[in-house]
């Protein structure tokens, strides 16, 4: 603790005159992931007055497996706060993009910009080509825009261009996960109002994941009121998969109360998969109620296989009695 305290004191007063002493104090700390916070402080302080020196140190002196990438990212983040253009130029010169233009070094710059100019960070992000830099940056921006509030988070996520459908789906899902933790009601309204696109289902999944752990009955009531049959079917299956692990009896009661419809088949199949380990006989009965033939047969077979593990005689009798052609 005494050594760490001395290091923190040194890094806070770091300037060109004591770089050697501060880096020496850092190097005396145990190597590896455990000193990432101390490394961040070092890179950010150094980048304030000599970003290229900080980057040279990170590129040559930090452990390539556990520290180098993080150190370079933090130095670039600190540099971007002071001089975005210079930081971008360094990133492009020191990591020539591949054929697809991807440059992971730019993620650090996006990270730094989010701390002082979120709109500038977003502009840089939107200009990135498809690749790992865009994927990593999306998570950073989703967190920051969610922190601004529900309306800003939704506006940012829905504003992502339609031409990269996979990335748009990811961004919408990321935002759904974050906003559901902040405001279930507002996220539920958003999920209900969204157009039919892949990202809408990711939002719904993340909403239900959060809701089911807190109040599955309220989630069930919300699903009951959905007018879009496709969304309702998907939501039923998602809630069933989570609620059945917590309270299979309550889940069964909810499913039994649903109007008879083939749209319920995915939820019933999910329920079968959840209870077949604890009630295989009941699971077989539920599987037999599925309307769609191929899904029904698949679910029955899975439940029968589970049943045979606990009571093969009774399971085989059920199979014999329900074979085609039997009265």
Percent of residues in β-strands: under 5%
Number of strands: 0
What is the distance, rounded to the nearest whole angstrom, between the alpha carbons of the first and last residues?
79 Å
- The percent range for helix content is over 70%
Biggest beta sheet attributes:
none
Low-confidence stretches: none
Order of helices and strands: HHHHHHHHHHHHHHHHHHHH
Report on the architecture of this protein.
This protein is 74% helix and 0% strand. It is built from 20 helices and no strands. α10 (150-158) packs antiparallel against α11 (165-182), α11 packs parallel to α13 and α13 runs parallel beside α15 (229-246). The longest helix has 18 residues, at 165-182. Among the domains are: 1-82, no CATH class; 215-327, no CATH class. It is mostly helical. The chain is elongated.
Summary keywords:
327 residues
Secondary structure blueprint with pairings:
Blueprint: H1 2-12, H2 19-27, H3 36-47, H4 51-61, H5 68-82, H6 84-94, H7 106-114, H8 118-126, H9 132-148, H10 150-158, H11 165-182, H12 184-193, H13 198-214, H14 216-224, H15 229-246, H16 248-256, H17 265-275, H18 280-288, H19 293-310, H20 312-321
